[in-house]
């Protein structure tokens, strides 16, 4: 059994932006040498999220932003916005979507489906630098 | 420490259908021989989800479909629907609910509450074959 | 590799209440002696949730309850409410938010961001006793 961790940073341009990090996750798992186990992809922020879904342009550039705006609208009043950035809606959306996705690992690869990519979602109102942590735990000849 | 994985397939009949997979998950954990650790229940699809909640008929057959329809309605326009199946709403619902649930394992069993079942949710517009992956990581006399 | 688990109980006062359990989670990780790996914070209930977000008063006392009421209103009809407690909306909210958060562990600490706390959310209509399970899996001199 072994553990392996890799982190990387991503510059975003503000809400709602979806960035495909699947290749980075797959590379971290490969580098770990871990063949079987799990990988947790986590972002240590409260106005960003990690989800797994299809990286199809209409879906992530138009449908997802529109759906989030219907569910958690920017335009209503947020008590949080009196404390700083006008990003109360971003916090609620992040709590809803979650900061991580956990995926089984088999044969040294995350077991994602064909139409399933790992996406970092920027939910804040302005451009940010986001950290993504890829933590692998499992069996195999870990080269660490 | 050990890892153990089991996969199975489920035939669904289309949205919104909740299928209780708790017994399959418990059996996989028991078969693993792992006594303490975690189990990740994952579905490698972008229009399905895994959630933990009560398998009560009114809740899963009527309230959950109605709530999803209020939050992410079928009837609005989705850019994604120009690319193929009219399942844009299913993708958004799946991103929201998530493809996995991770549960602590104690004494060889998932630590679910009495009113807490593991449910596969079919969120696509038509019947599908869905894979469910149960990945256990932990301590114990793993018979693998 | 090692596993370590700690559970604790929390008395709540009914919906929507957010209770910061970050210190309890950090203490469990420290006590485990595990330096690198993951920690899963899980609640075995179907009308409660675990989320990671900022413990800012306006956000958790006003914005989050208001947002949940907009997305999953109390006032609509729930089939589940004919079976017992009038908490159908609480079940749906719990399914949406999820019973757990999984966080990478580095240097013996959960890798949470500065504005990211682990919150137990009470989503039921009345006061309850809630269990929280903290399960750590990873590497290090586990003193168990």
Give an overview in words:
- The structure is a homotrimer of 144-residue chains.
- By secondary structure, chain A is an alpha+beta fold.
- Chain A has a single domain (2-73, 85-139), classed as Jelly Rolls, CATH 2.60.120.
- Chain A is 25% helix and 37% strand.
- Chain A is built from three helices and eight strands.
- Chain A has helices at residues 22-32, 57-71, 88-97; strands at 2-11, 17-20, 36-42, 48-53, 100-106, 109-110, 117-122, 129-139.
- In chain A, the strands form two sheets. Chain A has a five-stranded antiparallel sheet, covered by helices on one side. Chain A has a three-stranded antiparallel sheet with strand order 2-7-4, sandwiched between helices.
- The longest helix of chain A has 15 residues, at 57-71.
- The radius of gyration of chain A is 16 Å and the shape is elongated.
- Chain A starts with a strand and ends in a 5-residue tail after the last strand.
- Chain A binds chain B through residues 1, 36-38, 51-54, 56-59, 61-64, 66-67, 70-71, 96-98, 101-106, 111-113, 115-116, 137-139, and chain B through 1-3, 5, 38, 40, 42, 44-46, 71-72, 76, 78-80, 82-83, 88, 91-92, 94-96, 98-100, 102, 131, 133, 135, 137.
